[in-house]
Amino acid sequence: MFKKRNKLFFLIFVLPTFAAFIIGFIYPFFSGIYLSFCKFRTVSNAQFIGIGNYIKAFQNEGFLQSFWFTCVFVVVSVVLINVIAFAVAYILTLGIRGSNVFRTVFFMPNLIGGIILGYIWQQIFNGILTNYGTNLVLNEKFGFWGLIILMCWQQAGYMMIIYIAGFQSVPHDLYEAARIDGATKKQILTKVTIPMMAPSITICTFLTLTNSFKLFDQNLALTNGLPGVVGTGGTTIYKTEMIALNIYKTFYANQNSRGVGQAEAVIFFVIVVVIALAQLYFTRKREVQQ
Question: What is the rounded CA–CA span in Å between residue 174 and residue 192?
Answer without folding.
Answer: 7
